Amino acid sequence: MHTRREILMGSLAATTALGFGLSSCSQSSEAMNALQVLVPSGPGGGWDQTARSIEYVMRTEGLIDEFRIDHAIGGGGAVGLSRFLSAQSGQPDAMIVSGLVMVGALAANSSPVRLSDATAIARLTGEYEVVAVHKDSPITTMRELVEQLQSNPGAVSWAGGSAGGTDHILVGMIAKAVNVDFRDVSYVAYAGGGLAQATLLGNQVTCGVNGYGEFAEQIAAGNLRALAISAPVPQPGIDVPTLRAEGVDVELSNWRGVFGAPGLDESQKSHLINLMRSMRETPTWRDELAKHDWNDIYLSGDEFAGYLSTETTRITEILTEVGLAT
Questions:
Q1: Are 229 and 235 within 8 A, CB to CB?
Q2: Range 128-253: architecture per CATH
């Protein structure tokens, strides 16, 4: 009898013939024995959820013996990225979780570090944003929220993630769509989705913006009231109207993925790509996608790197258009 790990190692070694670049089973075993993942935000947000789902799946499926998660907070992920690029260079068992939030934050803050300096491994999930209010809020629909925003923009406070991130971008797009000057909007930026959610649950702000998966549990529990989702059409299993159905012509999808350290050779890069591919193909990962209402938008390696380049240009243009970047 062979263990699941032995079967996986043999399968990964066999991919050499398909051009994935694994040079030996011993290298594969060594590279995949342990993994350390940096979450460039606080606990509880989407990046943290992603890292913990990866850990859960890899441990459950026997893909990794040791798994460690670290956090670095600040700058919409720029602090963590800077630390990762300098401290983990050439380290084959290190990854950082990132996504659209970081792309926007780096552009908005004219950061000297670039996500493209890391090694693109895999785009994993896509998620629509949701606008929500506290359960006791007098606001019951997105149309009512828009009316208040148009009447007195500064009186409507929005809790969301880092400046320039996905949440901030969505608020800017909503303001532009309803003819409100974004400079008048009161956006309260937090270092992670968990902190923004805590503020909303404390009824300290008018509304909050976050990925649907991050708010889903509190929405289901009745502690938050979802007003609208940023999807182009109604989503199966999610009883929330789209922004467009509520008269706001906006749609936006967040994405999250993982990057390896800079300076990896092709063999080291292939090890990480194959590890994430193996994880993505497990039933346990599919269960995690369903649990968090994440869409599977898997893309890996050079294709992911090409997507990142195009996405960086697109998001920078949007940020400039709504006044969040110059």
A1: yes
A2: 3-Layer(aba) Sandwich (3.40)
Q: At what angle do helices 78-87 and 100-108 cross, to 10 degrees?
A: 100
Q: How far is residue 283's CA from residue 286's CA, in Å, rounded to a whole number?
A: 5
pLDDT per position as a tens digit, 100-148: 989 998 998 889 999 999 999 999 999 999 999 999 999 999 999 999 9
Facing residues of 222 across strands?
none
Residue with tokens 């990225």: 81
Classified by CATH at the fold level, domain 4-126+255-315 comes out as: D-Maltodextrin-Binding Protein; domain 2 (3.40.190)
Contact status, residue 189 vs residue 160, Cβ threshold 8 Å: yes
User: Where are the domains positioned within the chain?
Assistant: 4-126+255-315, 128-253
Structure-block tokens of residue 322: 């709504």
The pTM assigned to this predicted structure is: 0.78
Q: What is the pLDDT of residues 53-91, one digit of tens each?
A: 999 999 999 999 999 999 999 888 999 999 999 999 999
Helical segments of the chain, H only: 4-14, 25-31, 46-60, 78-87, 100-108, 142-151, 166-177, 193-201, 212-220, 266-280, 283-292, 301-321
